[in-house]
């Protein structure tokens, strides 16, 4: 029996370290790891010990004997990867670096702003040093950022990452302040005078606007806002009124990344009840940004054994031309797209239709969005327009996460809105490395933080907006 990595993998590489026979790749430091959509287990070498299953925070690894029919593509994906990158050396990799130790005696106190994945991975790295205490400030009343409010509700396995974050926040040495917005309830400068270092992990603020006429009409919303509504984000309750219009009707999703597919599944699902969702990609199908694992999941939606099967169709555009030197996974991707292009709709089922080479030039309608105009002049009528073209993000100048000694940045606030949940782990490790270098060098925030014990932070928050 071999084990197989499936759709929910978020590339944090925890399993790679656990494997006694070095059969999970790409590993950190190997070519392609930084961009990898997922990692792959070599079925030829896997000894079926199950160590990786325990290590995985999102339940992505299953024995091949327990794969569902719609997950079989992951076996082919792994085989394709090892055809291109055989990784013949099976010496267990000593990937666990020796634990770094601070050279200066503590105690040190670090403030982390934002309790999303990046802030919590950074806190976890910092707490490996017994000299460091961490206080995390989160503006919402609940932690975990987009891992709670962005990740799709039907990605049940991925959402299991919450258990890892709960373990991180339960560590002694970490104090979590919920309902405290830095910049409103407490200023960054106030934190800088009370802590040896401040790490900003505030993510990327909002959905990017479509940037075409009509994009601010009622009935136009962003895909992250939609995901947040479906996950009961307190600031999104009023979206329910917008969504009534699409019950039994048609929605258009603009964009062709994973978040666009999340939005499409949500819209045809029972929470919204659209009859048809048209996903419009600006460029050709071969430029679509959704990952192959997400495509595997999408293809499986039509499985008649599901309680609520959904038709998924690829409406137009030529089948992708095979590349002369195909990237690993491109054969499976091509096969799945060809399969979608050949499907015919089943009467009565809700459907998701993917259409490429279709840039949108305008959202039409007077009082609210009623359609989208495409570059060829045609208009697609719709009851709702969802923009899934990424997040706005203001870059911050930094080196390895260091904005200046004592002030750091990590996660989406540092890299922009790219990568997977696990990508924020390596990102936080880099930032914390720069922070530890500065602590060792005696560089930090300008003031003397040891004069301000923790109760002074609580005193600072008393009477302000904190809970
Ligand atoms: C819709 C959507 C779906 C996604 N689905 C997946 C998926 O299925 N799998 C996957 O691997 N990745 C997924 N991602 C990507 C993943 O969510 C991100 O990589 C990750 O959340 C980024 O972490 P972050 O901590 O940098 O930002 P965030 O998750 O945004 O966290 C930032 C935190 O900072 C807080 N904050 C902001 N400003 C302040 C302030 N001034 N004071 C205090 N607190 C503040 C915010 O409230 C938030 O809790 C998805 C992303 C989106 C948008
Ligand atoms: S089951 Fe064991 S041998 Fe197989 S990939 Fe997981 S850790 Fe490695
Ligand atoms: S999520 Fe992490 S531990 Fe799980 S399979 Fe992917 S890389 Fe391995």
Automatic annotation (TrEMBL):
It is an enzyme of class 1 (oxidoreductase). One of its GO terms (molecular function) is ferredoxin-NADP+ reductase activity. Keywords: FAD, Flavoprotein, Iron, Iron-sulfur, Metal-binding, NADP, Oxidoreductase. CDD domains: DMSOR_beta-like. Pfam families: Fer4 (PF00037), Pyr_redox_2 (PF07992). Residues 444-467 are annotated as: Disordered. Its EC number is 1.18.1.2. It comes from the Bacteria. Its cofactor is FAD. InterPro entries: 4Fe4S_Fe-S-bd, 4Fe4S_Fe_S_CS, FAD/NAD-bd_sf, FAD/NAD-binding_dom, Ferredox_Rdtase. Residues 37-66 form the 4Fe-4S ferredoxin-type domain. Gene3D superfamilies: 3.30.70.20, FAD/NAD(P)-binding domain (3.50.50.60), NAD(P)-binding Rossmann-like Domain (3.40.50.720). It catalyses: 2 reduced [2Fe-2S]-[ferredoxin] + NADP(+) + H(+) = 2 oxidized [2Fe-2S]-[ferredoxin] + NADPH. This is ferredoxin--NADP(+) reductase. It comes from Nocardioides flavescens.
């Amino acid at each position: 029996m071999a084990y197989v990595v499936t759709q929910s993998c978020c590339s944090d590489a925890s399993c790679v370290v656990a494997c006694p026979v070095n059969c999970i790749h790409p590993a950190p430091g190997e070519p392609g790891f930084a961009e990898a959509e997922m990692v792959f287990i070599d079925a030829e070498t896997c000894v079926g010990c199950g160590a990786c299953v325990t290590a995985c925070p999102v339940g992505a690894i299953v024995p091949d004997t327990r794969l569902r029919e719609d997950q079989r593509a992951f076996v082919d994906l792994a085989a394709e990867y090892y055809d291109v990158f055989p990784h013949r050396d099976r010496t267990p990799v000593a990937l666990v670096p020796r634990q770094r130790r601070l050279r200066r005696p503590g105690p040190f106190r670090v403030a982390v702003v934002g309790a999303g994945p990046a802030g919590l991975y950074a806190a976890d790295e910092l707490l490996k040093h017994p000299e460091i205490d961490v206080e995390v400030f989160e503006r919402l009343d609940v932690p975990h950022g987009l891992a709670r409010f962005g990740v799709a509700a039907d990605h049940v396995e991925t959402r299991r990452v919450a258990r890892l974050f709960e373990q991180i926040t339960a560590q002694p040495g970490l104090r979590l302040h919920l309902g405290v917005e830095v910049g409103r309830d407490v200023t960054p400068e106030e934190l800088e005078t009370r802590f040896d270092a401040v790490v900003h992990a505030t993510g990327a603020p909002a959905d990017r606007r479509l940037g075409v006429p009509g994009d601010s009409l009622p009935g136009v919303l962003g895909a992250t806002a939609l995901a947040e509504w479906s996950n009961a984000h307190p600031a999104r309750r009023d979206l329910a009124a917008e969504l009534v219009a699409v019950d039994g009707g048609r929605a258009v999703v603009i964009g062709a990344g994973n978040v666009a597919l999340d939005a499409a599944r949500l819209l045809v699902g029972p929470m919204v009840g659209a009859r048809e969702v048209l996903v419009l990609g600006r460029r050709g199908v071969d430029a679509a940004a959704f990952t192959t694992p997400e495509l595997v999941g999408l293809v499986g939606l039509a499985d008649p054994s599901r309680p609520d099967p959904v038709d998924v169709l690829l409406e137009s555009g030529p089948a992708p031309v095979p590349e002369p030197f195909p990237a690993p996974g491109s054969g499976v991707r091509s096969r799945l797209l060809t399969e979608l292009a050949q499907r015919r709709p089943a009467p009565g089922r809700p459907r998701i239709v993917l259409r490429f080479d279709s840039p949108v030039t305008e959202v039409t309608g007077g009082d609210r969005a009623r359609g989208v105009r495409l570059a060829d002049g045609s208009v697609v009528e719709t009851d709702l327009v969802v923009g899934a073209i990424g997040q706005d993000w203001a870059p911050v100048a930094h080196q390895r996460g260091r904005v200046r000694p004592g002030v750091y940045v990590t996660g989406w606030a540092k890299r922009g809105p790219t990568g997977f949940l696990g990508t924020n782990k390596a990102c936080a490790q880099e930032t914390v490395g720069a922070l530890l270098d500065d602590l060792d060098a005696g560089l930090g925030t300008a003031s003397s933080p040891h004069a301000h014990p923790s109760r002074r932070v609580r005193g600072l928050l008393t009477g302000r907006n904190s809970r």
